[in-house]
Write a structure and sequence with these properties.
The complex is a heterodimer of chains A (about 290) and B (about 425).
Chain A (H helix, E strand, L loop, with lengths): L1 H28 L24 H11 L17 H8 L9 H4 L2 H9 L1 H5 L23 H14 L5 H12 L17 H8 L9 H4 L1 H10 L1 H4 L12 H15 L3 H31 L3
Helix pairs in contact in A: 2-7, 5-7, 8-13, 11-13
Chain B lengths: L9 H9 L1 H10 L2 E3 L8 H20 L9 H12 L3 H28 L8 H23 L4 H13 L7 H9 L6 H29 L15 H9 L8 E3 H26 L29 H9 L9 H15 L3 H4 L14 H20 L5 H31 L3
Antiparallel strand pairs in B: 1-2
The chains are: A mainly alpha (about 290), B mainly alpha (about 425).
Chain lengths: ~290, ~425
């Protein structure tokens, strides 16, 4: 009984200290921000309730988008190598094959209408400022036309699932700017070009699942400005599912032994638990002779 | 030379040459430990086991680690964590073990303070133990630099910078420690050497001294009672085990320790596999970058209390800068526990709760150390800075007051 009392006192002292230096300190150093908003409800320029017409969308895309964007799944191949594309636009323009799958519909529609406000980058590209975002606003299009474009992009998106989807989504959403050396993945925009375009080399994401962790990434990818005000990383507008695929890929790359760790952990704890019981029985036997 | 007769067994052959029988008696079966103890007396064995676990896991890590600023980070986070079979396990055991070993050291140390096990002949046990604390601190600090993450780099930067406050030679001293004007490859390589060679050797030496120092004054007991160990041992050997106040180290004492060890290991492996962030700070999974200061720099949790004493003095007093005052207070904090046996002027060797004045001092110290630890991590701004200052002052005042408190106590209890 007395030993349990001592244990309780030690547990209380250790518990208070732990609370102070971990959960409490973490809470002070990283205050909570607004939760992630996967409806992107701040944008209302386009009436997304309109049903899009795929055929009309195809015509609009071929007239307006493929001069700069490839859509490999629809047969529009990239017209120049990455280095040349980066030199022309600042950054390699994204292939739109998976745009309809990975980007939220509301985000995508409003992005076409006005990219800079959708990305929350007006601090970097102020109206009338020296720098202009490489893609123009399509605010002259009607809401119906924009929804036609969105419908077309959704129709060409390939269906992928499982680990293939993790990598495909990462490559499409992050891989033009970020490298991930532990996955042997290098940013498609050449290093010097992306540094000039972003103002700094975007970080290698190999260990971001560990250094930033899931909770932070969940909020950060959804809206970087909330957690890192002033960053030149755009809000990319991934759906919740696509964002989870990206985070899953970062985990497969940066914490590849997680499953092994968690299954082995239970066995090791069980083993030491059995050891503790045997040790207790032996101790009882030995001490019965001296008490 | 003694006459050797033909040995009848392999055991006897070795016994003739190495005195195994005698050795085992002295070290194990007739090494006497008081019977009146609780599980806190198992911390020494826990620490020995933890040291063993750290050495073994460290040897495995050493096979793949590269002490070079361009390779260190990836050798840890890619090669060891992802490529080498069970490399992640050894790294987790090593990193979490290094943190948990300090938890046990602190429990061991404050058990010693609580039960008065540092005085009346036990001074050398205490001093060798404090020496081990300092050496483990050096080992922990040098090891934390090796993964070459952001916190490795900036903690190393801040801590080596502290030596710049030493009068006259400060600036040169910092350069001498770093091997460069800033924390660099030469710093990493020399701390690697300290971590895997010099400090472990010193630790092994200090452990031997610590164990040896226990032999003459003997282990203290829960009541602080002094008795004749030889007489009690005779009683035990004569078969009166129940009335003897001692038990042999093997198997009686260790049987209890093994149980405590078992419970502890369940907890330890829970941390290793499922709850390791406290020992492997997320910030340290960003590679070291001397041009990018992290928003918050803090040392590992076990250094927080002394770190807070260092930065608690943030303003000038009587013409002495806050930095110098902090450094002086920090130096005092590092050394003051060594002289505890002489600051405690009361002859009582009793658990703190049976000592009329010391018990208040003890619990005050515990509370103050917890406050220092927590505020050592929080950003030192606004009220936090003042709480840091107050708790740092309290720490110093507690030790200045100790001789007076214990002298009054000695008077009250009449020298008992």
């Amino acid at each position: 009984m007395k030993e349990l009392k001592i244990l309780a006192i030690i547990a209380a002292l250790v518990g208070i200290t732990y609370y102070g230096i971990e959960p409490y300190a973490h809470h002070i150093m990283h205050p909570e921000v607004k939760p992630a908003d996967f409806a992107f409800s701040d944008m209302k320029n386009v009436d997304t309730s309109l049903a899009g017409n795929v055929d009309n969308g195809k015509v609009l895309v071929e007239a307006n988008c493929i001069a700069c964007h490839s859509i490999e799944k629809a047969g529009h191949l990239q017209i120049m190598p990455n280095a040349d594309a980066a030199a022309a636009y600042g950054v390699v323009p994204p292939d739109l094959s998976s745009a309809g799958r990975i980007y939220d519909k509301n985000y995508l529609a409003n992005f076409i209408f006005d990219p800079v406000s959708a990305m929350h980058l007006s601090h970097k590209y102020p109206v009338g400022g020296a720098k202009a975002f490489p893609m123009p606003s399509y605010n002259w299009m009607s809401a119906q036309e924009i929804m036609d474009v969105v419908a077309y992009l959704e129709s060409v998106s390939p269906k992928v699932s499982g680990k293939d989807a993790h990598k495909a989504t990462y490559d499409a959403a992050c891989g033009r700017c970020h490298s991930m050396s532990y996955a042997k993945s290098e940013a498609t925009t050449p290093k010097d070009a992306i540094k000039a375009y972003m103002g700094a080399t975007p970080p290698d994401l190999s260990q971001y699942i560990k250094s930033r962790q899931e909770h932070y990434l969940h909020g950060f990818i959804n809206d970087p400005q909330l957690l890192l005000a002033g960053t030149s990383m755009p809000r990319v507008g991934l759906t919740e599912k696509a964002q989870e695929e990206v985070i899953a890929y970062m985990e497969e790359t940066g914490d590849s032994k997680k499953a092994e760790r968690e299954s082995l952990g239970l066995w090791v704890m069980l083993y030491t638990f059995v050891f503790a019981i045997l040790a207790y029985l032996w101790k009882r036997k030995i001490w019965s002779e001296v008490h | 030379m003694a006459e050797f007769k033909q040995a009848d067994s392999l055991y006897e052959w070795f016994d003739q040459r190495l005195g195994i029988d005698k050795f085992l008696k002295v070290m194990m079966t007739e090494y006497w430990i008081p019977k009146n103890i609780n599980f806190l007396w198992a911390m020494g064995v826990l620490l020995s086991v933890m040291f063993g676990i750290l050495v073994i896991s460290g040897i495995f890590l050493l096979m793949y680690y590269k002490p070079d600023v361009n390779m260190a980070f990836d050798s840890v986070n890619y090669t060891i964590m992802q490529e080498v079979g069970y490399g992640w396990l050894f790294r987790h055991i090593h990193a979490v073990g290094a943190s948990v070993v300090f938890l046990i050291i602190y429990i061991h140390m404050f058990t010693g303070i609580y039960y008065g096990s540092y005085k009346k002949g036990r001074e050398m046990i205490w001093i060798s133990g404090m020496l081990l604390f300092v050496l483990f601190s050096a080992e922990g600090f040098s090891g934390y630099m090796l993964p070459w993450g952001q916190m490795s780099y900036w903690a190393a930067y801040v801590i080596t910078e502290i030596f710049g406050g030493v009068p006259l030679i400060g600036g040169d001293l910092v350069v001498w420690i770093r091997g460069n004007f800033y924390v660099s490859d030469s710093t990493l390589t020399r701390f690697f050497m300290l971590h895997v060679l010099l400090v472990p050797l010193a630790i092994i030496g200090a452990i031997v001294l610590h164990f040896y120092a226990l032999r003459f004054p003997h282990v203290n007991n829960e009541a602080g009672e002094f008795f004749d160990f030889d007489k009690e041992a005779e009683k035990y050997l004569a078969g009166d085990k129940k009335n003897s106040k001692v038990v042999p180290f093997w198997p009686v004492f260790l049987s209890k320790d093994f149980f405590v060890l078992g419970v502890f290991l369940v907890f330890f492996f829970y941390l290793v596999f499922f709850h390791y962030d406290f020992a492997m700070d997320p910030v340290n999974f960003d590679k070291a970058d001397g041009l990018k200061t992290p928003a918050h720099i803090y040392p590992e949790w076990y250094f927080l209390w002394s770190y807070e004493v260092l930065r608690g003095f943030f303003f000038e007093i009587a013409g002495i800068s806050g930095k110098s005052l902090g450094l002086i207070a920090f130096a005092v904090a590092q050394g003051v526990f060594f002289v505890l046996p002489w600051l405690d002027r009361s002859p009582m060797v009793k658990p703190a709760n049976q000592r009329p004045y010391f018990k208040y001092w003890f619990w005050f110290l515990m509370v103050d150390l917890i406050v220092l630890t927590v505020y050592g991590k929080l950003p030192p701004t606004g009220t936090n800075a003042w709480i840091g200052f107050a708790s740092s002052m309290t720490f110093l005042i507690l030790f200045i007051a100790l001789p007076f408190i214990t002298r009054a106590e000695a008077k009250k209890v009449g020298g008992k």
